[in-house]
Design goal:
Layout lengths: L1 E8 L6 H9 L17 E7 L2 E7 L9 H16 L2 E7 L5 H14 L3 E6 L8 H11 L4 E4 L8 H11 L17 H15 L10 E10 L7 H4 L29 E10 L2 H8 L4 H17 L3 E10 L7 H8 L4
Helix pairs in contact: 2-10, 6-9
The protein binds guanosine-5'-triphosphate and magnesium ion.
Length: 330
């Protein structure tokens, strides 16, 4: 059986996270038109009868010496080290330029097998021939596919091409898993996506989400305990209890477990607080409602969200925080 780790690498906004979601058939990673949306190596798992692919989505590769960017690049480097295969995603709608050159250099040096996917071909770009030529000259991909992550074009071709390059091995995850992210991380990402969508200029880059508190409300005493422990619920949010013998099984489906969450949108400057709160709090209300709508699609819980904004000056320059967010940075 083929089993491998596959790093999805490319420039910011090439469509890597959109592609990961399309490949997994589930929303695993947040996406937006703002470059450098992804900040972590997000795993999405694809199973076929021939094997299992663990995709690692990565931040857009961008050559800049700003501290946050150094950490983002480090996430890419580590994912590349961990990968058996690289899925290189290029954006067919933008001229390649220097930034694309830097990505190709990195991949050529890695010596890993490469599958190249030229994305956004739904936009009917005139750049396809140039991009294909560039890939052939600089890299030696096992396959060069033209795809559209948005329209789902040629995605099975990507899975097959990648699977072929994966080594033989054992499954890394049970076959019903599509990601390994914990609920806390997914919740902060969903909130961040909704805030990014509703803000502009520097705000999306100046923003992170801190989950301050979350608590599952106790189910009714009569409930069968096993029904109420949501899969993926963090340890310690439930005390174990013997199921009650009163009020035996009824036909009613068990009530959804209730999860209460308090989170902060953290920005760099006090002037950005008002932007996120909006006139009479309309912006933060829209972010909150949007996040709850998205969470409902992912979690089997009834969630209430207490969302606030706070300032952490110059957080993008703070090593301990960046390390906690993204790992080593060295
Ligand atoms: N037309 C078109 N747009 C796409 C396609 N794939 C992604 N996009 C759009 O491109 C933008 C960036 O998509 P993302 O998936 O967030 O890109 P990314 O490469 O993960 O970006 P970073 O995480 O910032 O590096 C979004 O507005 C997507 O809707 C595609 O196949 N066609
Ligand atoms: Mg992304």
């Amino acid at each position: 059986m083929k089993c491998g780790f596959v790093a999805i690498i490319g420039r910011p906004s090439a469509g890597k996270s959109t592609l990961l979601n399309a490949l997994c058939g589930e929303k695993v990673a947040i996406t937006s038109s703002v470059p450098q949306t992804t900040r972590n190596a997000i795993r999405g798992i694809v199973n076929r009868s021939s094997g299992q692919i663990v995709f690692l989505d990565t931040p857009g590769y961008h050559d800049s010496d700003k501290k946050l960017n150094i950490y983002l690049k480090d996430v890419v480097h580590r994912s590349l080290d961990d990968a058996d295969v690289v899925l290189y995603v290029m954006d067919a709608s933008r001229p390649p330029g220097k930034e694309e050159g830097a990505v190709m250099n990195l991949l050529a040096r890695s010596g890993k097998p490469i599958v190249a996917a030229v994305n956004k071909t739904d936009l009917n770009t005139p750049l396809l021939t140039e991009i294909r030529g560039l890939i052939r000259v600089n890299l030696n991909p096992s396959e060069l596919l033209e795809i559209s992550a948005i329209e789902g074009r040629n995605l099975e071709g990507v899975v097959q091409a990648v699977m072929e390059q994966c080594p033989e091995g054992e499954l890394h995850y049970p076959t019903d898993f599509y990601t390994d992210q914990d609920p806390e991380f997914r919740i902060t990402e969903i909130i961040r996506e909704q805030a990014i969508i509703r803000s502009e200029q520097e705000v999306p880059h100046s923003l992170y989400v801190e989950l301050a508190d979350m608590e599952f409300k106790k189910p009714p005493a009569s409930a069968e305990k096993a029904e109420y422990i949501p899969s993926g619920a963090p340890d310690g949010f439930f005390e174990r209890e013997e199921p009650s013998t009163e009020n035996p099984a009824s036909d009613k489906p068990p009530a959804k477990p209730k999860l209460w969450v308090r989170a902060f949108l953290v920005v760099e400057r006090s002037s950005q607080v008002g932007i996120l709160v909006g006139h009479k709090g309309e912006k933060i209300k829209a972010i909150r409602i949007g996040a709850l709508r998205e969470m409902k699609k992912v979690f089997p819980w009834k969630i209430s969200l207490d969302l606030r904004v706070k300032v952490n000056p110059k957080w993008r320059k703070k090593d301990p925080l960046l390390k906690r967010m993204m790992g080593s940075g060295e």
